[in-house]
């Protein structure tokens, strides 16, 4: 393949792959002392099981996952990882299962701030907060700073009776809170025994591609034509200009030209 073909091929590859927006999801997990070790492990297991399940998180390089643990402060436990295949997902799940609980107080805002630092693209950025308690520091300023930094969505899951539902409702973004699949939703579960199913459904909703715009309103019935004697056809108005192709149309045109050129070169080689 000549250099011209290589350049065109690389351009087309970049063009079509760049049309798909990735999702960056940071999971901010509560590691405070209010969570007993067994429940903390259930929290980790729920997240790890979601990560390694391809029916929940696609393994096609469309999703990045990072994990933060917060208590009084926050720590990035797993940096942003692109889920490209099952091996990558399994390695990430193993790292999540090995996270050690730090214990201490509850500072949800610290987790949000740390999550914001993990994002590596300008694509869709989502922070997913899990907690069983009430933040001892107002988390809203951290969420506001995250949104200003480019975060698109903040969702939350509250576990047990120690949460402050109003605080979580005010935390999520966009405002006001909306039902799952959101964006900007709160999921409530009674205990960590229910956490795995809840976080799986939550993550699946978060990484799902944005829906395509729906069809417009259905057209009404065609108006009945008014009969007129000897109707004359009238030419369509035109200003002599043609519509400019869209980016996708340009990509298809270039791809067609590449295929045509390769076909002609192959014929030429066979004839020589």
TrEMBL record:
Superkingdom to which the source organism belongs? Bacteria
Region annotation (Disordered) ranges: 207-245
The leader peptide range reads 1-22
Entry's transmembrane regions: none
**Which keywords has UniProt assigned to this entry?**
Signal
The Pro residues compositionally biased stretches are 212-236
- InterPro entries listed in its UniProt record: DUF1194, ECM_Assembly_Org, IPTL_CTERM, VWF_A, vWFA_dom_sf
VWFA domain sequence ranges: 24-207
Alphabetical list of NCBIfam families matching this protein: IPTL_CTERM (TIGR04174)
Protein name listed in UniProt: VWFA domain-containing protein
Origin species, per record, is Methyloprofundus sedimenti
Which taxonomic lineage does the organism of this UniProt entry have? Answer: Bacteria, Pseudomonadati, Pseudomonadota, Gammaproteobacteria, Methylococcales
């Amino acid at each position: 393949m000549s250099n011209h073909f290589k350049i065109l091929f690389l351009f087309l590859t970049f063009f079509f792959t760049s049309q798909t927006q990735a999702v960056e999801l940071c999971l901010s997990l509560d590691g405070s002392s209010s969570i007993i070790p067994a429940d903390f492990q259930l929290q980790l297991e729920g997240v790890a099981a979601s990560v390694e399940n391809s029916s929940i998180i696609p393994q096609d390089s469309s999703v990045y996952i990072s994990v933060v643990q917060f208590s009084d402060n926050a720590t990035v436990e797993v940096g942003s990882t692109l889920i490209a295949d099952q091996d990558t997902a399994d390695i990430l799940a193993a790292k999540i299962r090995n996270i050690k609980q730090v214990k201490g107080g509850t500072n949800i805002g610290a987790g949000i701030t740390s999550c914001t630092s993990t994002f590596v693209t300008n694509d869709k950025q989502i922070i997913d907060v899990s907690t069983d308690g009430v933040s001892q520091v107002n988390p809203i300023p951290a969420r506001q700073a995250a949104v200003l930094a480019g975060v698109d969505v903040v969702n939350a899951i509250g576990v047990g009776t120690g949460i402050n539902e109003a605080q979580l409702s005010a935390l999520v973004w966009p405002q006001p809170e909306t039902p799952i699949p959101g964006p900007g939703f709160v999921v409530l579960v009674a205990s960590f025994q229910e956490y795995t199913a809840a976080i799986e459904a939550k993550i699946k909703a978060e990484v799902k591609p944005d829906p395509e715009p729906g069809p417009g309103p259905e057209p009404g019935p065609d108006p009945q034509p008014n009969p007129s004697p000897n109707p004359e056809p009238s030419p369509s108005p035109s200003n002599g200009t043609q519509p400019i192709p869209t980016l996708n149309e340009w990509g298809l045109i270039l791809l067609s030209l590449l295929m045509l050129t390769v076909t002609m070169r192959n014929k030429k080689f066979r004839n020589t």
